[in-house]
Amino acid sequence: MNPNHSDILVIEDDKQIQIFLKYVLEKEHYACQQAETGEQALTRLEDRPADVILLDLGLPDIDGMDLITKIRSRSDTTPILVISARDQDEEKAAALDLGADDYLTKPFSSTELLARIRTALRHCPAAGKPAGKVGGLTLDRNQHRALLGGREIHLTPLEYKLLETFFESPGKVLTTQMIIQSVYGIQYAQDTRALRTLMAGLRRKIEPDPGHPRYIMTEIGVGYRLADA
């Protein structure tokens, strides 16, 4: 049983998939909202915020990519799990770059879907969770922002998630696979090139000298580590 009774918004216009998702979610004691169009989904979110959003990209009124942007303009913390028949790598990368948290290609099993939802819920910013601080770098989880020397840094959703992953385990070495799974999802566990690109962008924003990192160190052959002091 899910003790939190988390609220899941399903944005899907296929009736059969709606029925399937509602059955799977309610069996696990999640509260399930449903929307068949993008506009309906935005109205639902205004009336009742969701803990996780399941989004099909092929909606009748708004393209799913545009809807991700609209949702992110209202909330940059609610996890968005894309469920789509579009399986091209370019589509997946574009959805993640726009702010989606994970991408699940149809058809999928209920076991995999529930595992992805549990992962999304674990990475939700927790109300009242204290800010993390390493030197002059601060991660304020309650306000979902990062500060360097007291000044806010503009991070993309993926950069924020990457930094948050490190702040969960300061001083500990995280393997490349662990980081990729946390940031992108388990299906991208071998996509080290995407992580290197994301890491380079984050370092340019937080490191005084990206070539000689002060906050996030590379552990050659293993992964990365956030300084603990």
Automatic annotation (TrEMBL):
Domain Response regulatory: residue ranges: 7-121
UniProt-listed CDD domains: trans_reg_C
Record keywords, A-Z: DNA-binding, Phosphoprotein, Transcription, Transcription regulation
A single GO cellular-component term on record: cytosol
GO molecular function, one term: phosphorelay response regulator activity
PROSITE patterns, per database record: OMPR_PHOB, RESPONSE_REGULATORY
Modification sites for 4-aspartylphosphate: D56
GO terms (BP aspect): regulation of DNA-templated transcription
InterPro entries: CheY-like_superfamily, OmpR/PhoB-type_DNA-bd, Sig_transdc_resp-reg_receiver, WalR-like, WH-like_DNA-bd_sf
Start-end of DNA-binding region: 129-228
Domain OmpR/PhoB-type: 129-228
Pfam families xrefs: Response_reg (PF00072), Trans_reg_C (PF00486)
Protein's recorded name: DNA-binding response regulator
Source organism per UniProt: Faecalibaculum rodentium
Taxonomic lineage of the native organism: Bacteria, Bacillati, Bacillota, Erysipelotrichia, Erysipelotrichales
